[in-house]
Amino acid sequence: MHNKIGNKKGMIDEALREQARREQSYREQALKLFPWVCGICSREFAGKKLKELTVHHKDHNHDNNPPDGGNWELLCIYCHDNIHSRTIDSEHGIGGEESGQDAGLTHKAFGALADLLKKQ
């Protein structure tokens, strides 16, 4: 039993090492191809902060790594996380008016706020 657990842990460790190696490879390529600027917020990166710049796969396929970088964009960790959070939310039907989520809502929490502010 102990040997099976050890084998599974070894397989998981190897898969994580392989993923890290693959990510490092396309990250290095992307950093050579593109300016060190977040493609969304335009924040610039250099020195120690460069580690906060990540490679986003536009088609979400981490195995699609063309040599010209056509499937990549550099994003800061915050914008990258935001993109993936919005993608997950939209897959689950979450995301506000654009997803149609609040189409059946009858209460608007700030519905009368504009009128109250006009009175002041």
Features:
3 helices, two-stranded antiparallel ribbon, 120 residues, His-Me finger endonuclease fold, mainly alpha
The CATH architecture would be 3-Layer(aba) Sandwich
Structural class: mainly alpha
The number of E-state strands comes to 2
Round the Cα radius of gyration to an integer and report it: 22 Å
Q: Which strand order do you get reading across the main beta sheet? A: 1-2
Termini separation (Å)?
73 Å
User: Per CATH, what is the topology?
Assistant: His-Me finger endonuclease fold
Task: Describe the protein.
By secondary structure, the protein is mainly α. It has one domain: His-Me finger endonuclease fold. The protein is 45% helix and 8% strand. A two-stranded antiparallel sheet has the order 1-2. The longest helix has 32 residues. About 7% of the residues have low confidence.
